[in-house]
Specification:
The complex is a heterodimer of chains A (107) and B (121).
Chain A (H helix, E strand, L loop, with lengths): L3 E4 L2 E4 L5 E7 L7 E6 L6 E5 L3 E2 L7 E6 L2 E6 L9 E6 L11 E5 L1
Parallel strand pairs in A: 2-10
Antiparallel strand pairs in A: 1-3, 3-8, 4-5, 4-9, 5-6, 7-8, 9-10
Chain B lengths: L2 E4 L3 E3 L5 E8 L7 E7 L6 E6 L6 E3 L7 E6 L4 E6 L8 E11 L2 E7 L3 E5 L2
Parallel strand pairs in B: 2-11
Antiparallel strand pairs in B: 1-3, 3-8, 4-5, 4-9, 5-6, 7-8, 9-10, 9-11
The chains are: A mainly beta (107), B mainly beta (121).
């Protein structure tokens, strides 16, 4: 199975900050990497698919990059509604493993 | 609009089985695979398995291979997750999600609201 790690596990930031979260796969997964946002008590929401494609309706301040084993999710200017937990997921091969998550909260 | 609506919360005793349903509407149910994901309280997301509603083909995480079964009823546009031999560690919110694929990339673009399964004596 492909293992997926994320860093940091949590971060504190101000509104307006630029935030970057990193995801690493245990083997090359090309660009088969997705990012989700989850708020407490809610289902996850797809933000980015295929490493860098923005899901319809997602604000353009979110962007993704990377390939092979190393990927990033960047939030250009953090907004109050962006405080949440973010998960990456590889969809290169089953099982479609998720990273452990990164919690973004107020500084 | 497109949505997945799951069945309500369940409380089960250890050793019992639970069956969670996921009803699709607003799109053609047989076109996209359904994935199941669970989340224990305060924990991360754990992918459990998938099913093709068209062929009924399935795939499961190895650790659940002998306890989980994903089925569907195409006449009801509904997918089901059944987990047997429940233990306290199975207490979690269970989500179904639609797997959408485009130019070789697949992702979970539509999620159910989640079903809380509590395993307690």
């Amino acid at each position: 199975d492909i293992q997926v790690t994320q860093s940091p596990a949590s971060l504190s930031a101000f509104v307006g900050d630029r935030v970057t979260i990193t995801c690493r796969a245990s083997q090359s997964i090309s660009t088969s990497l997705n990012w989700y946002q989850q708020k407490p008590g809610k289902a996850p929401k797809l933000l980015i698919y295929a490493a860098s494609s923005l899901q319809s309706g997602v604000p353009s301040r979110f962007s993704g990059g990377g390939s092979a084993t190393d990927f990033t999710l960047t939030i250009r200017s953090l907004q109050p509604e962006d405080f949440a937990t973010y998960y990456c997921q590889q969809s290169f091969s089953t099982p479609f493993t998720f990273g452990p998550g990164t919690k973004v909260d107020f500084k | 609009q497109e949505q997945l609506v799951q069945s309500g919360a369940e409380v089960k005793q250890p050793g019992a089985s639970v069956k969670v349903s996921c009803k699709a509407s607003g799109y053609t149910f047989t076109t996209y695979d359904i994935n199941w994901v669970r989340q224990a309280t305060g924990q991360g997301l754990e992918w459990l398995g998938w099913m093709s509603p068209n062929s009924a083909n399935t795939g499961y995480v190895q650790k659940f291979q002998d306890r989980v079964t994903i089925t569907r009823d195409t006449s009801m546009s509904t997918a089901f997750l059944e987990l047997s031999s429940l233990r306290s560690e199975d207490t979690a919110v269970y989500y179904c999600a639609r797997e959408y694929c485009v130019t070789g990339s697949c992702f979970l673009d539509l999620w159910g609201q989640g079903t809380l399964v509590t395993v307690s004596p």
